[in-house]
Design a protein that fits this description.
- This protein has 110 residues and is mostly helical.
- It has 6 helices and no strands.
- The longest helix is centred in the C-terminal third of the chain and has 18 residues.
């Protein structure tokens, strides 16, 4: 990954992730967060695990991010953009749709 790709990924990630690491940590500790998303074999959901990783990335100095971090950041950007395009017409405040997005670091009501 070259510097231009890293910069674009960083910018896109910062555009879609609108929760601070501390707010994300608080959210991830809730029952609503743990219940949202797809769970494999009854374990942690993909989104919940991603949220923990996102909080770590947000706490990492930009110069210390790895190619693996940038790969996850691209995954987050893609997920959030796809999920936002599927916004339900009903009230979303307490919806699984919003909860799933919040696991990925984006609160659509923020």
């Amino acid at each position: 990954m070259d510097d231009a790709e890293r910069e674009e990924t960083w910018s896109d990630f910062r555009d879609v992730v609108n929760m601070s690491p501390s707010r994300l940590d608080e959210w991830l500790a809730t029952d609503e967060s743990r219940e949202a998303g797809q769970h494999k074999d009854g374990g942690e959901s993909t989104g919940h695990a991603s949220g923990r990783r996102i909080a770590e990335i947000l706490r990492t100095k930009k110069d210390d991010l790895t190619d693996d971090d940038y790969g996850h950041m691209r995954k987050v950007v893609g997920y959030v953009r796809r999920h936002l395009a599927q916004r339900p017409s009903a009230d979303v405040e307490d919806s699984r749709w919003r909860h799933s997005l919040m696991n990925w670091g984006h609160d659509p009501l923020a």
